[in-house]
Amino acid sequence: MASVGRNVLAPLLFLNLLMYLIVLGFASWCLNRLINGQTYHPSFGGNGATTFFLIFAILASVLGIVSKFIGGNHIRAWRSDSLASAGATSVVAWAVTALAMGLACKEIHIGGHRGWRLKMVEAFIIILTFTQLLYLLLIHAGLYNSRYGPGYRDTDYGVGGGTTGDPMHKGVPANRV
């Protein structure tokens, strides 16, 4: 029954990866236009929060992409040790994405002319905040129910045959103690 978590997590991981790649592309384009001083471009625009928002959107998308690669490795291995790295990177990616969402909300609140590319980056960051949170909750679901993830309480995997039962000499054959 451990495949329940995998079957739900894999499509969400792929969807988030695609969305983070789109955000990275469009946010990079917008930041390049901003640096070049081409804010008059009809599909760009912006306001005082745009610079900060784009920097955090790019940072969130890079961290999100790395988190998805590590999450893909976890889905392939489906063990508790791979879960630790996938969970940690997904928490960091979600935190920075939530920060970028706050800046997106500030940019929307300030108003002014914002082109369609900038509005799309804002919308994707807001959507990614919630889908990344869902991904984060699903990846940690095994902590509470082993049906949804690798067995956290299974401490004997990867250990050789006969052991002494002594936790200090775990994995050491009984004749070597």
From TrEMBL:
UniProt-listed GO biological process terms: response to abscisic acid; response to osmotic stress; response to salt
Keyword Flavoprotein applies: no
Domain of life of the source: Eukaryota
Spans through the membrane: 12-31, 51-71, 83-103, 123-144
One term under GO cellular component: plasma membrane
Name of the molecule in the record: Uncharacterized protein
Keyword Protein biosynthesis in record: no
UniProt cross-references to InterPro entries, sorted A to Z: AWPM-19 (IPR008390)
Keywords: Membrane, Transmembrane, Transmembrane helix
Organism for this UniProt entry: Pisum sativum (Garden pea)
